């Protein structure tokens, strides 16, 4: 059989599960040590003679990639070819809105859609700050969904958003990301699958990442690395792009290279003063800008 294009739907270190064009699933290993496919990647692969496995020979161009710096400061790709970033906050633990803004900024730079989901609504007692923050996201053009993985309220609406898309769920620890995935999967989420080779390597191997097909349509890429994903933006233009309302207002600034801090004739600062741009979101922008500048000075 000639080389075929397939999608990576699960990873086990240097072993993968692929979905072929006819929806057949096969186990595969990677040719050489330089190739580093991730869940969601489209790859070229070919069957290995006299074996049940396939060999991954190349990675096709990515539409986008979810990446973060690793412990050595190098960029580590966690997933690829994503359509939707689902950013989750919850009634408990207390929301860190700055973290949410960083996730949304990453989505803007990846050029993927994003939705804000507020989980554990069964615990809400009328928090004014939360209501204002969620209103800020809606004002900025982000869909905002209220749900409870405990009571399953709002889950059907989330299913409708994900349908026919490949999504990733991110958020602070403890907000219920895994619980939301389990409910979306109908309680049938499978965390591990067995792979078998002629040498016996990899049997009962714990999956690093997996693309889960949702019963009502759509897919979710799930992995510990993605769930704990902490995005980092590497330039001032990336930070500006990360805040859609600030990027849009910036077109009306007096100076084309305005950073929207202390420059005269800044349309962004004017928007904040007139409550057109959220003051809280603007403060997140400032914090992320200063953080990016600090990291840039160290490199």
Give me some keywords for this one.
about 300 residues, alpha/beta, OB fold (Dihydrolipoamide Acetyltransferase, E2P), Rossmann fold, Ribonucleotide Reductase Protein R1, domain 1, 3 domains, 13 strands, about 30% helix, about 25% strand
Describe what this molecule looks like in 3D.
The chain is an alpha/beta fold and 299 residues long. The chain has 3 domains: 4-59, Nucleic acid-binding proteins (OB fold (Dihydrolipoamide Acetyltransferase, E2P), Beta Barrel), CATH 2.40.50.140; 65-227, P-loop containing nucleotide triphosphate hydrolases (Rossmann fold, 3-Layer(aba) Sandwich), CATH 3.40.50.300; 236-298, Ribonucleotide Reductase Protein R1, domain 1, CATH 1.10.40. The protein is built from 9 helices and 13 strands. The strands form 2 sheets. It has a 5-stranded mixed beta barrel with strand order 1-2-3-5-4. The protein has a two-stranded antiparallel ribbon with strand order 6-7. Helix 2 (128-139) links the parallel strand 9 (113-119) and strand 10. 37% of the residues are buried. Residues 190-205 have low confidence and may be disordered.
């Amino acid at each position: 059989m000639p080389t075929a294009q397939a999608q990576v739907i699960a990873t086990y270190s240097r072993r993968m599960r692929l979905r072929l064009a006819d929806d057949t699933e096969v186990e595969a290993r990677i040719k050489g040590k330089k190739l580093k496919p991730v869940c969601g990647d489209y790859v070229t692969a070919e069957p290995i003679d006299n074996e049940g496995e396939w060999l991954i020979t190349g990675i096709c161009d990515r539409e986008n990639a979810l990446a973060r710096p690793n412990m050595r400061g190098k960029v580590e790709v966690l997933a690829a070819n994503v359509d939707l970033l689902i950013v989750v906050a919850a009634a408990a633990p207390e929301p860190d809105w700055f973290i949410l803004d960083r996730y949304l900024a990453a989505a803007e730079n990846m050029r993927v859609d994003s939705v804000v989901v507020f989980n554990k609504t069964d615990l809400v007692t009328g928090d004014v700050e939360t209501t204002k923050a969620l209103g800020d996201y809606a004002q900025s053009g982000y869909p905002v969904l209220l749900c409870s993985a405990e009571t399953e309220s709002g889950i059907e609406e989330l299913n409708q958003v994900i349908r026919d898309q490949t999504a990733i769920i991110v958020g602070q620890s403890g907000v219920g990301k895994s619980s939301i995935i389990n409910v979306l999967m109908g309680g049938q989420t499978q965390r591990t699958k067995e792979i078998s080779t002629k040498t016996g390597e990899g049997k009962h191997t714990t999956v690093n990442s997996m693309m889960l097909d949702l019963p009502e349509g759509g897919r979710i890429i799930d992995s510990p690395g993605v769930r704990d994903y902490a995005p980092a933006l590497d330039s001032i233009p990336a930070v500006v792009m990360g805040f859609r309302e600030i990027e849009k207002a910036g077109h009306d600034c007096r100076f084309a290279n305005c950073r929207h801090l202390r420059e005269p004739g800044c349309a962004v600062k004017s928007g904040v003063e007139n409550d057109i741009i959220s003051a809280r979101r603007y403060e997140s922008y400032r914090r992320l800008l200063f953080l990016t500048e600090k990291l840039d000075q160290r490199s």
